[in-house]
Amino acid sequence: MSKGLQGAVLRMLHADEFRLRVVSTALECGGLMKRVTFSSCGRLPDALFEPAAWMRLWFRTETGREVQRAYTVAGFAPDHSTIDVSFYLHQTSGPAASWAQWVQSGATLDVSVLGSWPFHMNEHDDGVVLLGDETAFPALRAILSGLPDGVRAHVLLTGEHDLTEFIPSRPGLDVRCMPARRAARGFERMLRGLDDERRSATGNQGKTETRPGMTWDCWAAGESSRMRAVRAAVKHSDAVRSQESHIQGYWSLHHVI
Asked: The Siderophore-interacting FAD-binding domain covers which part of the protein (predicted)?
């Protein structure tokens, strides 16, 4: 089955291509998500085994056309023989969620890897600020699981479901949840709190990017229009490294994924 123009462009850019086979599946997060474990007959790219690494999975639509959807690697075996992907089973199911709903062991998916941007925290920063809805939840958990001990983390979960209970506790972790319509204001309040903390610690001095312990990394993903508000809030924050922040629209209210 042809992958169309997108597939041709990825091949031209020398994307890694391989096929995954489903080993097992399991519902998680109260049945809101399905975790699918894959194996590969060949060696998987090393880039997939870093926090929040992602790959392009190819799904067939009802018309027979193949489309790509990006998914985070939610976990992997210590020997790198298998990888896990968590699919959010949203009600307005696109080709990816529909596939995950009914998939069984033995099924296969074609995969392309190009442009994956794993999360790497600046070692001089005080902590991380994370925001995401259900579609970004697997990436949020992957980032948290890869943080060094003692690193502070402020997490704001948005969307239709409260997933706070599915985030393992750790020292220095603050997790909050609020409806998507209030998330932008909640995020702004969170950043203002970090700005106040920073000004207090620096004696009300100006922004000092090189001073350790006074800045935060930011990673956010979710609905595209809401990410624009997040991007604006980060831009006006003294505490967050705006130029190094990762803020990405995963989906649109007007487009089913």
From this structure: 53-111
